[in-house]
Amino acid sequence: MSGAETGAVRGGGAADRAPDGAAHGARDLGVLAPDGAGDGAPPLLSAEQVKVVFPGRRGDREARAVDGVDLDVRPGEIVALVGESGCGKTTLARSLLGLVTPTSGRVTFDGKPLEYASRALKAYRRRAQLVLQDPSGSLNPRHTVYEAVAEGLRIHGYAGDEQEAVAGALSRAGLRPPERFFLRHPHELSGGQRQRVVIAGALVLEPELIVADEPVASLDASVRGEILALLLRLRDELGLSALIVTHDLGLAWNIADRVAVMYLGRIVETGEVEQVLTAPRHPYTRALLSVLPESETEPVILTGEPPDPSRVPSGCRFHARCPVLASGEAERAGVADACRTRELPVLPGSGPAAVACHWAEAVERAAG
Amino acid sequence: MTPHDTHEEPAAAKAAPGGGTPLLEVRNLEVTYARTPGSPAVPAVRGVDLRLEAGQKLGIAGESGCGKSTLALALLRLLPSTAKLSGEILLDGEDIRTMSWGRLRAVRWAGASVVFQGAMHSLNAVHRIGDQIAEPILLHGRATPAAARKRAGELLEQVGLPAARVQAYPHELSGGQRQRVMIAMALACDPRLVIADEPTTALDVMIQAQILRLIEGLVADQDLGLIMISHDLAVLSDTCDRLAVMYAGRVVEEGPAKAVHAHAAHPYGRALSSAFPRIGDLASRRAPRGLPGDPPDPAAVPDGCAFHPRCPVALDVCATQDQVLRVAGPGRRAACVRVGDDEGGAGAGDGAAVAREGAGGAASEGVSETTGSGS
């Protein structure tokens, strides 16, 4: 039902602006079955050895917020970037959108490195859009829904029928009939409707990729499922790629194809969702899963907060909190020294499941 | 018929083994707000009964706007003056609704205290946290300033922070640490009842686990009563003994927490419990489940069952007939036409053709003879 509707709107948009239609045509060919999710396809968005270092203030040590990350998002793929507050996931997401310039390493989109001149970035943001968390904070209370969604079109000098594009984006975001919402203000909407307006604002420029930072963290349980279903449908119908930054592993299970678990500036485990979340190998991933309500394993509650990116421990960066090292299991596997002193390699950005853990590697080697 | 016709029996269903006065007993509580002076009052809580024993943990679940936070604030009369309360709120047998202001001030903090959501907004940014924790102790005249400061340090240690953090300002703490401070404040005057409103909603999973473990430990050690409010049924069922699910200002389902979460009898309870997936459950993989629509405007609650416009298994009768809580298994009640023996029998007959998930809803049928002897 919405497919036909969406198709009509998109068709209209493309006819109005041929040059962009061409760019989107390439993406349409890349629409993939949900399960295939771009196996073998070149990545649409790629982080290569990205580091983001913030200088310390007043003689403080510098903070290595992102400390060497490879991460790919392929066309039509939904990737969940999971980790605790302060692990660097939001900084990584911002660097992928060109909002933060990496200190070293690079970000490529559609095979080409990002350019950081403002004109080039503006063109890039047409193709890769950010969806912010907390819709109440990211919508201007004095703007109507129409103005909020049309803002992107105006910034980019959209030449087509603005009203039609806004209506199309609103209906794709599940606000139907769209005309009914044009003149409403944010305070007249429910939390779920506000989040849909924010998503419509991102969709109106027909991006190829969205980066969503905690898209459902501030929403009710009942609305959460609705918004996640919307993101899934946008991928299935438009081939929209998504990187979703979250601390919510259930979200990854609900909609993502791949998951990357981040800890203190590095990705420590990555792979297909089924594999990583049902058979986690890294002690950190295991701990995160064990504390979920209804988890069948004994909860492993890590003490303290995630450590400080200005004091990244030597060796494995998780070793100071690692329950496997603390319990002596790592010692028995003969890797305790390595855990404390030997740094782990950066995991590949896509491909088969991978883990950055001396202990997991040793155990798996021993098992053959 | 009104929903309150059946109010006499249900409390007995949850009576503690020894009987006697429960820690908290709420009887037919109603809260209405006047939106503007002179306009008709809008009901936010529409007749709620609750009962809680010391050492017991009760979870209250529901969406924003279902009245759960209004209910929590009403328990200590913390609502604005435009709110009107009726019914009884008995804390250790004493009615909070009718007590004098002086007595109420004594009961707040010392009898019952609240852990609010959003610790950043609830703490004063320009005062050291030690002073904020000591403030209620001093106001209650329980200690000298020096002793209150010492007690603040002890409370911080009790919630897992170094006592030296009394010197810290709120911005110097992380979200999880601030939530611990909120809990320390709530414990400052040794209350018997703690009301926690979404205590972990904005926190990471690991910090959430730490805070829930802390709350559970404190309740067990000090024999407190706990009311925990959340929209996350999975978290509530993990922490609490009993669950009450609220919709449009009423409790629409209640019972033992694990049973309600695993096999909710009310379609609304089922929608909430499937909102957060269990990882490994293939039915929820790439299949997020939500509930279309929004909770009703309190000023225009639908006729009949308030949930019927959003209900996936509604019958014709739901549009006209208000549903009251009825027995839905041992120690369980639900306000749904498909539950219980009287109308439920007819409902199940109609429903078999209409409802695809009738089986789940009817799981509790046939045990209604065990009238409320559970718990």
Distance between the termini of chain B: 29 Å
Secondary structure category of chain B: alpha/beta
Indicate the low-confidence ranges of chain B by residue numbers.
1-18, 342-375
Write the H/E string of chain B, N to C. HEEEHEEHEHHHHEHEHEEHHEEHH
Instruction: Determine the number of helices of chain A (DSSP H or I, runs of at least 4 residues).
Output: 16
Shape of chain B: globular
CATH C-level category of the domain at 19-111 and 191-278 in chain B? Alpha Beta
Q: Can you count the beta strands of chain B?
A: 12
**Helix-strand pattern of chain A:** HHEEEHEEHEHHHHEHEHEEHHHHHEH
Tell me what the CATH architecture of the domain at 19-111 and 191-278 in chain B is.
Answer: 3-Layer(aba) Sandwich
Mind summarizing the main beta sheet of chain B?
A: 8 strands, mixed
Instruction: Give the termini distance of chain A in whole angstroms.
Output: 51 Å
Tell me the number of strands of chain A: 11
Low-confidence stretches of chain A: 1-38
Instruction: State the largest interface.
Output: A-B, 44 and 41 residues
**Percent of residues of chain B in helical segments?**
25-40%
Q: Please report which band the strand proportion of chain B falls in: under 5%, 5-15%, 15-25%, 25-35%, 35-45% or over 45%.
A: 15-25%
Shape of chain A: globular
Helix content of chain A: 25-40%
GO molecular function (chain B): ATP binding; ATP hydrolysis activity
Biased composition (Basic and acidic residues) (chain B): 1-11
Subcellular location (chain B): Cell membrane
Region (Disordered) (chain B): 1-21, 342-375
What's the short story on this structure?
Helix content of chain A is 40%, strand content 17%. The N terminus of chain A is likely disordered. In chain B, helix 5 packs across helix 6.
